[in-house]
Specification:
Layout lengths: L1 E4 L14 H9 L3 E5 L10 H6 L3 E3 L2 H7 L2 E3 L6 H6 L5 E4 L7 H9 L3 E4 L15 H20 L7 E3 L2 E3 L3 E5 L3 H12 L3 E5 L6 H6 L3 E2 L20 H17 L2 E4 L14 H6 L5 E4 L16 E4 L2 E4 L9 H19 L14 H6 E4 L2 E2 L10
Parallel strand pairs: 1-2, 1-4, 2-3, 4-5, 5-6, 9-10, 9-12, 10-11, 12-13, 13-15
Antiparallel strand pairs: 6-16, 7-8, 14-15, 16-17
Helix pairs in contact: 1-11, 6-7, 6-11
This protein binds nicotinamide-adenine-dinucleotide (NAD).
Nicotinamide-adenine-dinucleotide binds next to α6 and α7.
């Protein structure tokens, strides 16, 4: 079969769904790989690099879609791309079926088979190698710290130099899921003093193992809402949490917020008053900007200065590290392809007996199969 990789068309999207290292592996599994000319340019991957790895470079978008048996994409397709998808073709990309019912109907009408990488049952340990939400959140968490360091006027690490003593920067991370943990590790590696808070008490040990201090809210309530995700907290907890965050805002130089609750707007954790209380030159990176922001003063997509504090609300952190995020995403898709092609003969079998495959198959040959029944945890 032919795996086709089109150029991403979503504004500002710099990732590409495969990279030359992975092209070679797909060919070893028995597939042919066709890549649209220029697909990797924004991730510093030119056509020659793909060609050297054995890919066929296709100039025409329509031809690429038409010849592909399986399309690998990052972003879900727009209307034009759905039109280009071959009748009965297979698509692997982010889809977010709950948020995109129209797209689901249009893909079903194409008799497509659609594997939504965001619908992977993440709780299966076997699925971790295919978990693109985790790989991309890790990149975003790293990049958030890089953005913070870039906007901050001092070192992260403490130094004793002939020119004087420099104190280490203090960093507070709100939300210690995948992105938050990556940010903790990165900031600690740069030498900052790192503190973090999450409503799920279970993450405290992970925070410590990455070199951070877990700061607890003085209120007895756990935030686990099932599946490793958070729930909306009680008024009492939120009040106690605001008091603790207000104190951190006065003390630290940098705040990175990552708090999300599935299906809800991002919780507002950093108020305008807290921003006002921060030292001039402090930085906030709001990784929840796209979901409404954890900080009241965030402007999604922009970096703004309010009360002397730089508030970074970029919504394209993964695209700002496109070579890295593309490589990890491509590897996640390769691991998935291995599961689909146990026979190593360039054919795929969308096997519904396999919990991981069942979970991410949201449409099979035109029939909507989402949501999948809960997987049996081994
Ligand atoms: P996410 O992006 O939905 O949430 C980010 C973090 O924000 C979470 O840790 C959440 O608890 C926290 N949060 C929510 N509201 C908050 C508030 N008011 N104050 C402070 N923090 C708040 O989650 P994610 O990072 O995609 O994943 C969350 C968890 O899912 C992981 O940490 C992990 O436990 C689980 N997970 C498990 C596996 C696996 O089992 N293999 C794989 C991936 C993720």
């Amino acid at each position: 079969l032919i795996v086709g990789v089109p150029r991403e068309t979503f504004a500002g999207e710099k990732r590409v769904a495969t990279v030359p290292e992975v092209v070679e592996k797909l060919i070893k599994l028995g597939f042919r790989v066709a890549v649209e000319s220029g697909a990797g340019v924004q991730a510093n991957l030119d056509d020659d690099a793909y060609r050297a790895a054995g890919a066929e470079i296709v100039d025409s978008t329509a031809q690429l879609w038409n010849q592909a048996d399986i399309v690998f994409k990052v972003r879900g397709p727009n209307d034009e791309e759905v039109g280009l998808l071959r009748e009965g073709g297979t698509l692997v990309s982010f889809i977010w079926p709950a948020q995109n019912p129209d797209l689901m109907q249009k893909l079903a009408a194409k008799k497509a088979t659609v594997l939504a990488i965001d619908a992977l049952p993440r709780q299966l340990s076997r699925a971790q190698k295919m978990d693109a939400l985790t790989s991309q959140a890790g990149v975003a968490g790293y990049r958030a710290v890089v953005e913070a360091a870039n906007a901050f006027g001092r070192f992260f690490n403490g130094q004793i130099t002939a020119a004087g003593k420099v104190p280490p920067a203090k960093v507070f991370i709100a939300g210690a899921g995948v992105a938050g943990l990556a940010a903790i590790g990165t900031a600690a590696n740069l030498g900052a003093i790192v503190r973090a808070n999450d409503t799920r008490a279970e993450v405290a040990d992970q925070v410590k193992s990455l070199g951070g201090e877990f700061v607890k809210v003085d209120y007895e309530e756990d935030g686990s809402g099932g599946g490793g995700y958070a729930k909306v907290m009680s008024e009492g907890f939120q009040q106690a949490q605001r008091e603790m965050y207000a104190q951190q805002a006065r003390e630290v130089d940098i705040i990175i917020t990552t708090a999300l609750i599935p299906g809800k707007p991002a919780p507002k954790l950093i108020t305008a008053d807290m921003v006002k209380s921060m030292k001039p030159g402090s930085v906030i990176v709001d990784m929840a900007a796209e979901q409404g922001g954890n900080c009241e003063l965030t402007v999604p997509g922009e970096a703004v200065v309010r009360h002397g504090v730089t508030i970074v609300g970029y919504t394209d952190l993964v695209s700002r590290l496109a070579r890295q995020s593309s490589t990890l995403y491509a590897t996640n898709l390769f691991r998935l392809t291995e599961e689909l092609c146990k026979t190593k003969d360039g054919q795929i079998n969308v096997n519904f007996e396999d919990d991981a495959i069942r979970g991410l198959t949201v449409i099979k040959e035109g029939e909507i199969t989402w949501p999948a029944p809960a997987p049996k945890i081994p």
